[in-house]
Design a protein that fits this description.
The strands form 2 sheets. The protein has an 8-stranded antiparallel beta sheet. Strands 5-6-7-8-12-13-14 form a 7-stranded antiparallel beta sheet. It contains 7 helices and 15 strands. Strand 5 and strand 6 form a beta hairpin. The longest helix has 15 residues. It has 281 residues and is of the alpha+beta class.
Length: 281
């Protein structure tokens, strides 16, 4: 249940704004977090602290729930390529990361973490030596086994590249910015418009525009959907921690899950509802 954030804005924002968006996803659970605001890359273990005055128009952030490697600052996201040209955040699991890791090490890439996610940064750094980012992404869809919601930033480029397969990813349409996230609650307080990624799609997002593509590189049109979210459902209120809150409020948690499924994958939502109804017969 990791959280993922990416912002591309027409106006400068402080790094604390990036962390404010991330903190709205803390109910998903995490053990460490980090962010990159195009100036600094910072990682921490423990609770999200909303701070930072760096001004930027682009940034990515992430909360991690450890799967590959221990709970350390080094293993926290974002991850940086050896040449410091590529920065990534990743939700999901790269199933063939060991093979990819060895291939990249043989080509001179130096790994610093124990995670499967770090291979993504080195993978794109290697591909970008000979290919443009769009073609590198197409290769990624063919070469990677596993699940992912990934945001990629390239040094000195004010674009975020977003990829999705079997892991939630959505983009909020705001007045002066685009916000990419693993959950609409990251931006539901500032907009009610969103574009939902489907499997094996990617987007190139700037402050003024965005383009969606399928895994074959073909441009696809995506509808902007309006949504309604009850804010109090995701606030910790008087509870000491979110796990206790969700235990006490299971009906609301289930409702939140069903709402997310309805917005992200209509077909999957309908199948789930049918399954629930059939189980009661």
């Amino acid at each position: 249940m990791c959280g993922i954030i990416g912002i591309v804005s027409k106006k400068e924002f402080a790094s604390r704004f990036l962390l404010e968006r991330l903190k709205r996803l803390e109910y998903r659970g995490y053990d460490s977090y980090g962010f990159y605001d195009s100036k600094d890359l910072e990682k921490y273990v423990g609770e999200i602290v909303v701070a930072g005055d760096n001004k930027s128009r682009i940034g990515i952030a992430h909360t991690r729930w450890a799967t590959h490697g221990g709970v350390t600052e080094v293993n926290a996201h974002p991850h940086l390529s050896s040449d410091e040209n590529v920065v990534i955040v990743h939700n999901g699991i790269i199933e063939n990361f060991k093979e990819l890791r060895q291939e990249l090490k043989d080509k001179g890439h130096k790994f610093v973490s124990e995670t499967d996610s770090e291979v993504v940064a080195h993978y794109f750094a290697e591909k970008l030596k000979k290919k443009k980012i769009k073609n590198a992404i197409l290769d990624f869809f063919n070469d990677i086994k596993g699940t992912f919601a990934i945001l990629v930033m390239i040094k000195d480029k004010e674009e975020v590249y977003a990829l999705k397969r079997d892991s939630p990813l959505v983009m909020g349409i705001c007045n002066d910015m685009h916000i990419l996230a693993s959950d609409i609650y990251a931006f539901s307080d500032i907009t009610d418009k969103a574009v939902f990624f489907e499997n094996d799609e990617f987007a190139i997002v700037t402050d003024k525009s965005y383009k969606f593509f399928n895994k074959n590189g073909e441009t696809i049109e995506k509808p902007i959907k309006k949504f309604v979210w009850e804010q109090e459902e995701s606030e910790k209120k008087e509870y000491k921690h979110y796990m206790l809150k969700e235990i006490e409020e299971e009906p609301k948690v289930i409702q939140r899950l069903l709402f997310s499924l309805e917005n992200e994958q209509k077909t999957e939502f309908e199948q789930l509802i049918k399954l629930i109804k059939d189980s009661k017969k």
